[in-house]
Design a protein that fits this description.
Layout lengths: L2 E9 L4 H16 L4 E9 L11 E2 H9 L3 H17 L11 E2 L3 H12 L3 H14 L7 H10 L4 H10 L3 H13 L7 E4 L3 E4 L4 H14 L1
Parallel strand pairs: 1-2
Antiparallel strand pairs: 1-5, 3-4, 5-6
Helix pairs in contact: 1-9, 4-5, 5-6, 6-7
Length: 215
């Protein structure tokens, strides 16, 4: 008999460790497929809520935000690319890449959750930003990705133009901030247990087994 696992995956679509964390978590869940019945709920978190739509050069951004030198930033990107490759994800971020505002992406993800296509859209947006180097604040990119996972393009466009779900996203973000979430990915299991970071699959599996044993 499988045990239910409600998984609140708090993340941003321009967070590389969120890609890695999701891939590793999915590997762990595949190992537990005969024991666990997971339900994902992707929750919004903006790493850079004041980022303008045109974005910013990623090297410049990292230097301003974290004080990293160009050499440190390049080393960090190389390490992340290697981790991503290990989980089968092509991360093509370079020093010429840009980082973008993600609020509209989170609005579409909220809608995708209502339509039962949230995890598919999340994966598509990760691909768009990290692999294809697309502007995930561009409505045309967002509509195309929504359509690629079976969502209605006209509805997606109307959501983006109207501002629908903005209040839902802001309220959810604020609730997670107030609960103490300060970095992503943060993964809350059964609304009680939290695992943080892009952990290896073995770490996720061990944690999930312990949670299921206590349930």
């Amino acid at each position: 008999m499988t045990k239910p696992l409600t998984i609140d995956f708090i993340s941003d679509v321009v967070c590389p460790w969120c890609v890695i964390g999701l891939r590793e978590l999915e590997t762990a869940l595949e190992r537990l497929k005969d024991e666990a019945e997971p339900v994902f709920r992707f929750q919004p978190f903006e790493l850079n809520p004041t980022m303008p739509p045109e974005g910013q050069n990623i090297g410049e951004h990292i230097q301003q935000k974290y004080g990293s030198s160009p050499e440190q930033a390049a080393a960090g990107r190389s390490m992340i690319r290697d981790r991503a490759a290990h989980v089968g994800f092509a991360m093509n971020v370079s020093g010429d890449s840009r980082i973008y505002n993600t609020f509209d992406a989170h609005r579409l993800l909220h809608w995708a959750g209502l339509e039962g296509r949230q995890i598919e859209l999340k994966r598509a947006l990760f691909d768009a930003y990290f692999t294809d180097q697309s502007n995930v604040s561009d409505p045309e990119v967002l509509v195309a990705k929504a359509e690629s996972v079976g969502l209605d393009g006209a509805t997606a466009r109307e959501i983006l133009e109207s501002g629908r779900y903005a209040e839902h996203v802001r309220a959810a973000e604020q609730a997670w901030y107030q609960s103490g979430i300060a970095s992503v990915p943060s993964i809350v299991i059964n609304e009680r247990y939290m695992i943080t970071g892009g952990q290896p699959a073995d770490v996720f599996e061990k944690a999930l087994r312990r949670i299921m044993a206590e349930a």
